[in-house]
Design goal:
With about 375 residues, the protein is mainly beta. It has three domains: about 180 residues; about 70 residues, Beta Barrel (OB fold (Dihydrolipoamide Acetyltransferase, E2P)), CATH 2.40.50; about 60 residues, SH3 type barrels, CATH 2.30.30.30. Helices cover about 10% and strands about 40% of the residues. The strands form seven sheets. Strands 3, 5, 14, 15, 16, 17, 18, 19, 20, 21 and 22 form an eleven-stranded mixed sheet that branches. A six-stranded mixed sheet has the order 2-30-24-25-28-29, with no helix packed on it.
């Protein structure tokens, strides 16, 4: 088998990009097919049901569960406020009354004469889904959302954290091997997506969050610094839900790694442009890439190839597993025979020559093509 197929990492200045924007449950779609939308504009909204609070009224009043309706001052569907009396006994000659107060604000959902408990539903939480990218609505999904299409630059990273952010790109380094340090981040970076070079330091991450940087795009990050910044260790689940105050997109890997020239030059050419960034990552089942999208109405996009990228001699690839995670190289050969791994399983391999001249033989599943 001379050829193989492997997932590709896209870095392109001209692509057609479609984003499906869905509510977590049915709601109201706010846009129509053909409508132009801005990234910040909501395309659908709904209300998430509030949590339920259980109050043991029978216990609070020292009465039998079957008798609680006699003492309830509120009924199903009634609105109550935190601290409001919802039930009380008559007491003796109007004195020594026992009272039960609501511990939350909400609506009484049920009164149980079996358990003696009252369920109060907290107020619903309004949820809106924005367009994420400037573009056009090409499909409306009834009661759920819409598909937004745009043309522009797409840079996929190898790893990221933090959810979706929108801001103007600001390149603050002069070369792809320059570190992103705190002195390069100032008040002018507030609300921006900052582009660095080979590494972002822990101190730079902290300062960026303090002054309101929306996102950081950089070649590498030290895994110890990332753990310090997050406050915990990253597991194998999907990233992107972290509440860290900004979005971090790593284009090359862990450690200090020079950003690929092609990636850096593309980002530099887009300096000052509005970008949408997302740190969500999943490499194993169902690949999900961190990304930077810059809408460009003026670009012309060639018709996309129908076939998948082909792994062959001379193709640039990136290692996506340890111990070479993040390293970039060129396919030197594709041995036909199977090789046995330490796990004793036999797999097809690829010989890669890295940028520093060293070579390694890796399972083909452990590399991805850089398109």
């Amino acid at each position: 088998m001379a050829h193989a197929y492997t997932p590709g990492l896209k870095v392109t200045g001209a692509a057609v990009i479609r984003k499906t924007r869905l509510l977590p449950l049915e709601g109201e779609v706010l846009v129509e097919e053909g409508q132009r939308v801005r990234a910040e504009e909501p395309v659908a909204r709904t209300d998430l049901p509030g949590d339920v609070e259980m109050i043991n009224v029978a216990n609070a009043l020292s009465v039998q569960p079957g008798d609680i309706r006699r003492y309830m001052l509120k009924r199903e569907g009634d609105r109550v406020e935190e601290g409001e009396v919802i039930a009380q006994t008559k007491g003796l000659f109007g004195l020594f009354r026992s009272q039960c107060r609501s511990t939350v604000s909400g609506t009484i959902e049920s009164i149980s004469e079996v358990t003696g408990q009252v369920l109060i539903r907290k107020p619903p939480t309004p949820i809106e889904v924005n367009a994420y990218v400037d573009g056009a609505v090409v499909e409306v999904i009834p009661r759920r959302g819409a598909v937004i299409e745009t043309k522009g630059a797409l840079i996929q990273g190898i790893f990221g954290v933090g959810g979706e952010s929108i801001g103007e790109l600001k390149v603050v380094v002069s070369s792809p091997d320059e570190r992103l340090t705190p002195d390069l981040i100032d008040g002018s970076c507030s609300g921006k997506v900052v582009v660095g070079g080979s590494l972002v330091t822990y101190e730079a991450l902290i300062k960026a969050r303090e002054i309101g940087v929306r996102g950081i795009v950089v070649g590498g990050v030290d895994d110890f610094d990332l753990r310090r910044f997050l406050g915990y260790d990253i597991g194998v689940a999907i990233t992107g839900s972290e509440e860290i105050g900004l979005t971090l997109v790593i284009t090359e890997g862990f450690g200090e790694i020079r950003m690929a020239d092609r990636t850096f030059e593309l980002l530099k050419s887009l300096d000052g442009r509005k970008a949408s960034v997302n740190g969500a990552t999943q490499i194993r089942a169902g690949v999900l890439r961190p990304e930077v999208i810059v809408p460009l109405e003026e670009v012309e996009v060639e018709e996309e190839r129908e076939s998948e990228p082909r792994l062959e001699v001379g193709v640039r690839v990136r290692a996506i597993r340890e111990p070479y995670f993040g390293r970039i190289g060129v396919v030197k050969s594709l041995p036909v025979e199977l090789r046995q791994l330490e796990t004793e399983s036999k797999v097809r391999v690829v010989e890669v020559e890295f940028e520093d001249g060293t070579t390694a033989v890796l399972p083909r599943a452990n590399v991805e093509i850089i398109e």
